[in-house]
Write a structure and sequence with these properties.
- The chain has one domain.
- It contains 3 helices and 4 strands.
- A hairpin with a 5-residue loop joins β1 and β2.
Length: 92
């Protein structure tokens, strides 16, 4: 039997796995975060993922606050084709 901590860690992994690595929530299609990179398979990733929250800078030099994907979900700012947006369609 899993402990509560193990169970919650597995749920967090499932939630993180919903991401399609499209980069949209990090500005890939507009003025991307300076920490956003694209790998050889066309997927995006954050160079500072573990320390991503808080004030960051875009490629053009604008500052913004990086927020959790949960904040994008609450605000309704997910783009069409986002794994989280698709997940919500299936739930709602």
């Amino acid at each position: 039997m899993l402990s509560y901590e193990e169970y919650m860690a597995s749920k967090e992994e499932d939630f993180e796995g919903t991401c399609l690595r499209c980069g949209a929530c990090c500005g890939a299609f507009d003025d991307p975060c300076a920490e956003l990179e694209k790998n050889g398979q066309g997927h995006y990733f954050c160079r500072s993922y573990k320390e991503r929250f808080g004030q960051k800078t875009t490629v053009s030099g604008k500052t913004f606050n990086c927020v959790s994907i949960r904040e994008h979900i609450r605000a309704g700012t997910l783009r069409e084709g986002c794994g989280y947006a698709d997940m919500l369609k299936n739930i709602l």
